[in-house]
Amino acid sequence: MPEAARVLRPGGRLIFLTNGTIMMLCAPDGVDDLPTDRLLRDYFGMHRFEWPGEPGVEFHLGYGDWIRLLRANGFEVEDLLELRPAAGAQPIPLFGDIVSLEWARRWPCEELWKARKRA
Questions:
Q1: Above pLDDT 90, what percent of the chain?
Q2: d(CA 17, CA 28)
Q3: Rounded to an integer, what distance in angstroms lies between the CA atom of residue 93 and that of residue 84?
């Protein structure tokens, strides 16, 4: 976030997509296991996520932590879109690897954040 604040001019927009918070809380430890309809992780204190057998690391925050991080780096939150497939949507291969279409119709698997750098 500090780097985005450094390179953006005042009034510049930061738009980013991240995995949905609920999805991360419902995701099992197995990299090939789809999220369930049960909370499996704690909301408070979530930050670093590592998956067994995968080299990457993911970072996810709760909503309040995202807002505080953005504000601390000079941004004002303009919007948070919790994405949901349209009625009648058909699964696509990549989408089906993350969550089922039925799951995504009930809970957001992705969130789109929009923020503007303060003048």
A1: 67
A2: 21
A3: 17
As beta bridge partners, residue 113 has: 16, 80
Kindly state the helix (H) or strand (E) to which residue 72 belongs, with its residue range.
helix 63-72
Question: Tokens standing for 87?
Answer: 């009625």
Structural contact between residues 107 and 23, judged by C-beta atoms closer than 8 angstroms: yes
User: What are the phi and psi torsion angles at 96 (to 5°)?
Assistant: -65, -20
DSSP annotation of 31: T
In 3D space, the residue among 108, 46, 116 whose CA is nearest the CA of residue 81 turns out to be 108
Whether 117 contacts 9, CB under 8 Å: yes
Tens-digit pLDDT profile for residues 82-115:
999 988 888 776 555 788 888 999 999 999 999 9
51 DSSP 8-state letter: -
Phi, psi (rounded to 5 degrees) for 71:
-65, -40
Architecture (CATH level 2) of domain 2-117: 3-Layer(aba) Sandwich (3.40)
| Contact (Cβ atoms closer than 8 angstroms) between residue 75 and residue 5 | yes
Q: Where are the domains of the chain?
A: 2-117
